[in-house]
Write a structure and sequence with these properties.
Helices cover about 50% and strands about 15% of the residues. The chain has about 150 residues and is of the alpha+beta class. The protein has one domain: 50s Ribosomal Protein L17, Chain: A, CATH 3.90.1030. The protein is extended and about 80 Å long.
Amino acid sequence: MRHGIGFRKLNKTGEHRKALFKNMLNSLIKYEQIITTLPKAKELKPQIDKVITIGKDNKLSNKKRLFSKLQDKKSVNKVFDELSKRYSSRKGGYSRVLKAGFRTGDDAPMAVIELVDRNPEAKKIDKPKKVETKDKTKDTEAEVKTAKK
């Protein structure tokens, strides 16, 4: 009988699985959309839904509970400040898993897991802004001319 088999082990130890999902939860909260393998995305969906449900009840005990799970102040603050307000009228189903084909290297099924009604600007958080630089060809030409003299 299959009693007590409630989650995928993903061929990892318990500690590795716990760290993996903690990192994936933090990334999903930060960027609001991540690409991963399909089994990992299916396991992550109930966890992010529970995190957002906990964040909707703004109590100190819930903040401590989330911090013990996520171990990142920025993620906890984003859950309580932004996500809880965004999903205040929604009863559940805060995330979705979309199949995204297969990975080229090992043909693993890939998926996109994202928050419903996500902020498209959240994906651009860590990307550096482009700074206009001088035309490098002009600089190198000037250096070559001075070197020849």
